Amino acid sequence: MVPDDDGAFAPTTEDAPSSSGFLDDGKNTIGSQLASRLREAIISGELQAGSKINLEKARKTFNVSLSPLREGLARLISDGLVEFEDNRGYRVSAISLANLEEITTLREEFEVFALRESMRLGDVEWEGNVMRALHRLNRTERDAARPETLERWEELHREFHLTLISGCGKPILLHFCRLLLNLNDRYRRVFLTRTSGDRNVSQEHSEIAQGAVARDMDYSCDMLRQHIHRTGTNLRDHLATKGIS
Amino acid sequence: MVPDDDGAFAPTTEDAPSSSGFLDDGKNTIGSQLASRLREAIISGELQAGSKINLEKARKTFNVSLSPLREGLARLISDGLVEFEDNRGYRVSAISLANLEEITTLREEFEVFALRESMRLGDVEWEGNVMRALHRLNRTERDAARPETLERWEELHREFHLTLISGCGKPILLHFCRLLLNLNDRYRRVFLTRTSGDRNVSQEHSEIAQGAVARDMDYSCDMLRQHIHRTGTNLRDHLATKGIS
DNA sequence: CCTTGACAGATAATCGATTATTTGGATAGT
DNA sequence: ACTATCCAAATAATCGATTATCTGTCAAGG
């Protein structure tokens, strides 16, 4: 119990907006690896929303012992993708219309706030990171026929949005936004394999990013809000189609 | 992996704004009990901010095995009170001026938004809960000489703030606010044993609550914002006094 | 004098087995 | 039929021991 250094929610392993991006590098322990694998399984829809996670089955499936399994699941709880109850075990967080709408609302509220703060506080390096993330995203094709392109695109899309707000200098806020993005991405991965025809998402991203580096707060924030809102509306329709309330 | 029911971040154990309040009832497993004990130890300052948590020592101190200890610590990570790194173990989240300022800023943003939503959506039961929480809080004395009164007051204070925003119908938002409140309470517990002389906190709470049930959005939100801001400023001064940057 | 590498002690991660709790179904009583 | 109670199987929680990893120290080499 010796005092040391570091700050709450300070950029740890996964948080550092290092040059190469946000996606975790050091998957050291079995627990960490499991967390990643489970996260992917949930976000991709492989593990059905709302389903109970049987520890014994999972243990066999992943060929690990209970301890690291619990370790991994514990992290997904922090991510909001898994829920837990004493003596009842773990289950994949359910999806619902209300949940999606809350996620959308909170993203509009907080991601936009974080963007504004980034524009206020971000330095030139932040600007550069934004432009790079934009470029990489727009250069990546999204072909519904090839799942690996979808995954790649999702990864870059996530990184773009996180980079946009990475200049805000508020680790806790970034943590919250990352969480909301996680939750949101699951809906998109499961329900939206291609963009609705009446949108030009690349252009939307460009407008947001250009506005951001130009420090045109009202414009860029408004674009981002609309971008998030449209995605929400889109997803809502798809949920309705599949009869999810 | 059988699908079932329930919603993401839906009011589970600790979330339910039931009649008796927010403070957890069912401390079933050793892991849960540990989480509570550790949380209290951290928020009260007993476990020094920034200090490393030696698993072996902790195991002996609490007289438990590793598994539930990790379980408990995992939950505190969700609460933002503990940090973790692969193969490096756990440590109590550090405190800093920047961290405090972020917490204050985000509370002003999030908690005020949640209050506005509560006023927009809350029903009569919510109003009743607010008035009850206010009454209980204002009837409880806070005597710096008797620590148990401080703890009790903190508990009721926390409950008052959570009740205020409990009508917003947004479980994830509530989760975020609870987290921020946790983090904030640690600063107050550690640095502020009594109210600064120039404030009448009871009256501030009354004004917020009265405005809330009267659905006077602008007034109530403004009062809450000021309330949070004053507390932040106050804490900042105390931190500065103790040479924390 | 500084750097590098190897060792030992400390600490974290994982495992397999054991214990506790819950759940669903069968049975007895109303 | 309906409810309550008790059992057994399923599942979660915990433990103690083992294995893997890290950290600091010290010696050899530059």
Task: Set out the fold topology.
Two copies of one chain form a homodimer.
Chain A (H helix, E strand, L loop, with lengths): L29 H14 L8 E2 L1 H8 L3 H13 L3 E4 L3 E4 L4 H25 L2 H15 L8 H18 L6 H21 L9 H13 L3 H25 L4
Antiparallel strand pairs in A: 1-3, 2-3
Chain A binds a DNA duplex (30 and 30 nucleotides) through helix 3.
Describe this structure in words.
Two copies of one chain form a homodimer. With 245 residues, chain A is mostly helical. Chain A has two domains: 30-92, Winged helix-like DNA-binding domain superfamily/Winged helix DNA-binding domain (Arc Repressor Mutant, subunit A, Orthogonal Bundle); 97-241, GntR ligand-binding domain-like (Four Helix Bundle (Hemerythrin (Met), subunit A)), CATH 1.20.120. Chain A is 62% helix and 4% strand. The first copy, chain A, has nine helices and three strands. The first copy, chain A, has helices at 30-43, 55-62, 66-78, 97-121, 124-138, 147-164, 171-191, 201-213, 217-241; strands at 52-53, 82-85, 89-92. In chain A, strands 1-3-2 form a three-stranded antiparallel beta sheet. In chain A, helix 4 (97-121) crosses helix 7, helix 5 (124-138) runs antiparallel to helix 8 (201-213) and helix 6 (147-164) packs antiparallel against helix 7. The longest helix of chain A is centred in the middle third of the chain and has 25 residues, at 97-121. The first copy, chain A, is globular. The model of chain A is unreliable at 1-25 (pLDDT under 50). At the A-B interface, strand 1, helix 3, helix 4 and helix 7 of A face strand 1, helix 3, strand 2, helix 4 and helix 7 of B. The structure holds a DNA duplex (30 and 30 nucleotides).
